[in-house]
């Protein structure tokens, strides 16, 4: 019989040493709040280059580029 274990909050997960040692959180610079921590890559395959992480966009930052990308994709 398996015994139930504690369920960690998201803050506890990112403070957990195992999460840190596996690189499952990444820090990025954001223009408004400054340095923030985001979830890192879920899967990593041997030999694959690490993926660049960026801060979330500001409101309106992609107002021109997203519709243009959608038009290209639908063409």
UniProtKB/TrEMBL annotation:
InterPro entries: CoA-Trfase_III_dom_1_sf (IPR023606). Residues 25-75 are annotated as: Disordered. Residues 50-75 have a biased composition (Basic and acidic residues). This is Crotonobetainyl-CoA:carnitine CoA-transferase CaiB-like acyl-CoA transferase. It comes from Actinomadura viridis.
């Amino acid at each position: 019989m398996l015994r139930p274990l504690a369920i960690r909050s998201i803050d506890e997960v990112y403070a957990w040493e195992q999460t840190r040692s596996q690189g499952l959180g990444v820090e990025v610079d954001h223009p408004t709040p400054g340095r923030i921590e985001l979830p890192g890559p879920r899967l990593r395959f041997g030999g694959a280059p690490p993926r660049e992480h960026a801060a979330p966009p500001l409101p309106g930052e992609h107002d021109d580029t997203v519709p243009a990308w959608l038009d290209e994709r639908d063409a």
